[in-house]
Amino acid sequence: MRDFVAEKVKNIPPSGIRAFFELVIGMKDVISLGVGEPDFHTPWHISEAAIYAIEKGATSYTSNLGLLELREMIALYLENHFKVTYNPKQEILITVGASEAMDLAFRAILNPGDEVIILEPSYVAYCPLVTLAGGVPVTVSTIRGTTFALDFDAIRAAITTKTKALFINYPSNPTGKSFSYEELDKLAHLAREHDLVVVSDEIYAELTYDYQHVSFSSLPGMHERTILISGFSKAFAMTGWRIGYAAAPHDIIEAMMKIHQYAILCAPIAGQIAAIEAIKCGDKEMRFMKKEYDRRRKVIVSGFNKMGLPCATPEGAFYVFPSIQRLPFKSEEFCRKLLTEENVATVPGTAFGSAGEGFIRCSYATGMDDIKEALRRIDSFLERHGLSCTEQAAG
Amino acid sequence: MDKDNLKKEILDILTKDARKTAADIAVMLNLKEDIVSASIHEMENDKTILNYKAVVNLQQLKSDKTHCIIEVKCSPQRGVGFDAIARRIYKFPEVKSLYLMSGGYDLLLLVEGDTMKDIGFFVAEKLATLDSVHNTSTHFLLKRYKEDGIILETQEKTPRLAVTP
């Protein structure tokens, strides 16, 4: 019998996160800092609105673009929060999670061989999605020592005549880094100079601490060349509802919608109704969750730094990306040892591209007590291996 | 962070978990421990923080204690309104909480007794006989579902995947 799996798919490496997930299954008493979703339940009024709608018989297809009311609410929200204007009838598409929006965006804009600049470390899906869409991902590392500042010379050097798009994700999974206005402005300048379309994954926009998120399409001249992607999963603790959206100029949304209508038809109606409730009345719970993440963020950052594992304070999302460069382990080995010896699950930085070597990703979307216990276990791991920072200093 | 905001943040943490130490709170708020301690002391002194208690699931305890809510209609007195009668009532140790209400009655009491008979005695002998009390309406508590924001029934946990992107 022939091998039925396509070469294109075979050549895509499996997610490094998946490998770790298999390891964790079956282990008991594991504290997981490996989870990329909120530990909160969806606020009850949101779930209740969806249950009520189902009881009332809202179980049908919706328009391909998604419920108009939801698109109108999203347009209003984007206008109020980020000062970007989109026409809900033509420039917003509701998708099955932000993940689908990303897939659609790449498939809609890429011709075979078109290159996409992706900043690493980056979320696991971006490069494979570009490849599957027939494009070529070109990665640029953002690692500078133990921080993640952008190197514009490196980005510039990666741009060729085939470069079609620049992909950005901020606040970032896995680093929690966001861009300063100056950095965004420079990225915008590059996009203009090389006539690039910018795919901007801003799913963590609401989970920005200390300052206000700036949406890429609000930068001068960027509205017409940006595909803004976001969704409800992270800020409203709605991962399982699978509701995301893309906002972009009409011709791009039209192209994305063409693929979406054939492949998906429409996002599930119950999720869309829940999303309407979230965006209308979910602000209070969202702020509550954000405050909680903020406190945990401070605890986990201080915990890692105290152990001598340099950890930049993330500007957003719910991840920290501490450096383990001073330890005699590679990321993968460290995470495996930590899991088997201390029952703490973290994700090796290399799961997010080779640039992530020497780092681990820890999610603080987990209870405060678990975070503290995990930090204690990591500390005792270091101690047992003679790697505590005090011992190091003494040695 | 200004002083009032600091107090609000600390209270927000302590009302959820009173066992959080000043050191814990200091890390959570990225502040120095002595600043947090000083603020807590100040709130203890000025009676903003009255007490630290455990929230107990009485169902679990299989306690025989009986609880009821009593609505009281009474007449206010010139010069002191409802305060004088409220003072007379709240001094009874059976009365756990007492509130002045708007609506169909004036005072709401949460009352605890060892048995239903005890509560009956308290209402008939102590409460209803007070001069300005016209009418009482006693509702016995049958089952507790939620206490102080905490749902008491054990809820099935939907497991999260241990590692996700």
Automatic annotation (TrEMBL), chain A:
PANTHER family the UniProt entry points to: ASPARTATE AMINOTRANSFERASE, ASPARTATE AMINOTRANSFERASE-RELATED
GO biological process, one term: amino acid metabolic process
Pfam hit, one: Aminotran_1_2
Keyword Transferase: yes
Record-stated family: Belongs to the class-I pyridoxal-phosphate-dependent aminotransferase family.
Molecular function terms from GO: pyridoxal phosphate binding; transaminase activity
Highest rank taxon of the organism: Bacteria
InterPro entries named among the record's database cross-references: Aminotransferase_I/II_large, AspAT/PAT-like, NHTrfase_class1_PyrdxlP-BS, PyrdxlP-dep_Trfase, PyrdxlP-dep_Trfase_major, PyrdxlP-dep_Trfase_small
Keywords, alphabetical: Aminotransferase, Pyridoxal phosphate, Transferase
UniProt name for this protein: Aminotransferase
Transmembrane segments annotated in the record for this chain: none
EC number: 2.6.1.-
Span of domain Aminotransferase class I/classII large: 28-378
Species of origin: Candidatus Auribacter fodinae
Cofactor: pyridoxal 5'-phosphate
TrEMBL record, chain B:
Native species: Candidatus Auribacter fodinae
InterPro entries associated with the record: Dimeric_a/b-barrel, HTH-Siroheme_Decarb, Tscrpt_reg_AsnC-like, Tscrpt_reg_AsnC/Lrp_C, WH-like_DNA-bd_sf, WH_DNA-bd_sf
Domain Transcription regulator AsnC/Lrp ligand binding: 70-143
Record's signal peptide: none
Protein name, UniProt field: Lrp/AsnC family transcriptional regulator
